[in-house]
Amino acid sequence: MVGNTIGLIALALGWRRSIWTWPAQFLSGLILVGAYASAQLSGGVGKQLLVIGVALWGWRLWNNGKQQAQDGSIAVRFATWKERGVLLGGTAVGTLAVGALFSAVPDLSWNPWPDAYIFVGTLAAMVAQARGLVEFWFAWLLVDVVGVPLAFSSGLAFSGLVYVIYLALVLWGMRDWWLRSRTASSQAPQPDMEGAPA
Fold first, then answer.
1. How many CA atoms lie within 13 A of 53 on its CB side?
2. Per-residue model confidence (pLDDT) at position 68
3. CB-hemisphere CA count at 13 Å for 58?
4. Lowest pLDDT segment from 13-17, 84-88, 185-189
5. CB 148 within 8 A of CB 160
6. pLDDT at 58 exceeding the cut of 60
């Protein structure tokens, strides 16, 4: 419960484009590692270790200013078609690979394919967030579409509630980042047209 609650806070901080989103995601991962380890769920521990790794990478990117706009805020933009293709392709291949692994080793997951979809989708969303891509929110939305009904149908009411709150944050965050990306592109310097034919 604590780990998932901090995860919600991390998402809200991501919406606000605060660098504290990454320490929060890191802390959430650490707590969930402890929870899964105490329950002897090695698959959950492994997944959270990967989440922690991506959180550290995103923290480093944002901390080094690689995603900053001129005013010092985190720059957000839509991905290029190439970036979208890499994200979609990587997510599809990753889901197939992780789903096959979870199916082959049942101890790693209680529901292999949906679990693989949610896990790989979460990693894809975090990678897109680290790069300041608006598509980060679409990735979270696709994770929630499976995560919400799966949690409730599995009797995990608290996790289902967390996913519902995630969904609301995702919709608000998506709108905010979308508008900011449009504002940033409209304020970008236009090419000098002096001397162009009338």
1. 8
2. 60
3. 31
4. 185-189
5. yes
6. yes
Centroid of chain to Cα 57? 13
Q: At what angle do helices 112-130 and 81-104 cross, to 10 degrees?
A: 150
CB atoms within 10 A of CB 1: 10
Q: Which residues contact 68 (CB under 8 A, 6 or more apart)?
A: 62, 74, 75
Closest C-alpha among 79, 61, 87, 84 to residue 181: 79
DSSP string, the chain: -HHHHHHHHHHHHHHTT-TTHHHHHHHHHHHHHHHHHHTT-HHHHHHHHHHHHHHHHHHHHHHTTTTB-TTSSBP-BPPPHHHHHHHHHHHHHHHHHHHHHHHHSGGG-SSHHHHHHHHHHHHHHHHHHHTTBTHHHHHHHHHHHHHHHHHHHTT-HHHHHHHHHHHHHHHHHHHHHHHHHHHHHHTSPPPP-TT---
Residue 183: its pLDDT value, please? Answer: 67
Contacts of 70 (CB under 8 A, 6+ apart): none
Best CA proximity match to 180, nearest among 76, 80, 79: 76
Q: How confident is the model at residue 97 (pLDDT cuts 50, 70, 90)?
A: very high
184: tokens are 């940033």
